[in-house]
Amino acid sequence: MNRALRVGLAVLPAGFVLWYASYYTTIAVWELRKLFAWFALPVLASVATALVWLVVRWWQRRAGRGAGTGDAAVALGCLGAVLGLGLTVCWLVYGSYLQDRAYMANAHIVTEPVPALTARAPYVVGKAQAAPHLGDVTGEISDITYLPDADRFATLVERRGWLAGYEVGLVQDIPLGGESRSQERCPFDVSVADARIGGWFTHNLGRKISAEQRWVRFEAEDAYVTCSGGEPVVVVPLKRQTGILVVTERPAGVALYNGRTGKLTLTRDTSAVPGPSYPLSLAARQREGTAAVGGFGDWWFERSGWDASQDGANEGNESEFTLRYREEAGRSAYVTPLTPQGEASSVVAVSTVPTRHEGGGLAPMTVHRLAPAWSSPKALVALIKAEYRDVCCYNDDQVFEVVPTGGSTWTATVGSEQNIRYRVEGQGQVGGREATCLKAADGALIRCGYAAPGSPEEQELKRREQQKQQEEGAKNPGDPGDLTGYTNEQLAELQRRMSEEIGRRLKAG
Questions:
Q1: Model confidence over 27-37: pLDDT tens digits?
Q2: Is the distance from CB of 267 to CB of 254 less than 8 angstroms?
Q3: CA-to-CA distance for 150 and 172, rounded, in angstroms?
Q4: pLDDT tens, 325-345?
Q5: Per residue in 87-111, pLDDT tens?
Q6: Which of 293, 313, 310, 315 is nearest to 302 (CA)?
Q7: Which DSSP string corresponds to 185-250?
Q8: Kind plus residue range of the DSSP H or E element containing 297
Q9: Which of 60, 358, 422, 443 has the highest Cβ tally under 10 A?
Q10: Nearest to 285 by CA among 472, 439, 101, 154
Q11: pTM
Q12: R_g (Cα) of the chain, nearest Å
């Protein structure tokens, strides 16, 4: 009785500590579950080998066969070790393939063009313009996110210090065209809202989320801030784990942390969230899973699927561009230009994943094959510099992101980090070359290096040429024609006007 009491007094406090430390137990369970998925099959094979060995030992002892038992046990143990090691290596490889296949479950590969998307200011521009607009804020920028619903960039600023949360949220308008550059700063009430992602002790927002709901986690890069009436709200998209031998992640709603009251709300109803609710990191993992679009052999030798374009032209933001649909109000997607696996750098497809998704399953991912394909973003930048060298690139001007904007079209912005001046719109090879047109930042057509046949830009250029010819014709009238057809009165009027014009020119010197 005393022994049982002592054991109980030792176990109960330990259990209480483990239950209270919900944040660390959640992390431990996540990591152990991943390890179990990788090593469960080899461990089971090892256990099965050990059981066979025990059965053989038992049978030999029962049969009275002592001689050679040690050698058989050693041989069986070595065989089990070799089989276990081989199975471990094979499962680590094949398990990765099965994991990619699981993320491909909701993928659709189509030849239809990408729906029309709205261009936005480049991410690096939004990042560069955040610091000058923070005023007397002393904190450090921790995150910058594009909010497609409001067409604005949100910046989350951490307060300095170990035991501190966030200091302010900044939401700024960075239009491609126009002079509006409004911004809204939402200060946190640091006396009650003193937690942040990665904070220490009770100032850790992840700890507060785990206290409300265990077994859900998040990526710091997925979180962002919104401002509504001067009230900051930190939005944290959540994820959960599924599967046993093949463990994958799924969306699990969002956590909303009010920067004025310190209240934390977890919800699966994301319809009222003023920004993306689907984790961007999960969309990126789904896109990486396209490597398993073929069989295991194609996956192993990297003969199938696509990679995000990584030739340096989109440095700082190479994948998962958050863009709004042009003709579908309130809808947006994570969009990524894709290149084939290997040495090819041409953009041959575009993937889209919605930024909002209801339910606990993966959001549908669509891979749009492009026809015609684009040149690589790096080659497109070189083409822009060659065709529009009078506007790009000198001083601090440069070509920013080359992003898909629907169909087979792309848009690149030209200017400096503080002033977007132009945009270049183009599409894949038409008639053996890339079709590109230079436009003002607000979208007004300036000229084209090569206009695609039948495109609105070509029609606009033809209209301008016809208008120019008409204006030149009005300024330079041609031959008045055969004078024999004029009446006497018309000839007299013509002579009078000619005499007046001659007199006017003589007086003018």
A1: 999 999 988 88
A2: yes
A3: 10
A4: 988 878 899 999 998 887 778
A5: 778 888 888 999 999 999 889 999 9
A6: 293
A7: EEE--TTT---BTT-SGGGBHHHHHHHHSTT-B--GGG-EEEEETTEEEEEEEEEEEE-SSS-EEE
A8: helix 296-300
A9: 422
A10: 101
A11: 0.83
A12: 34
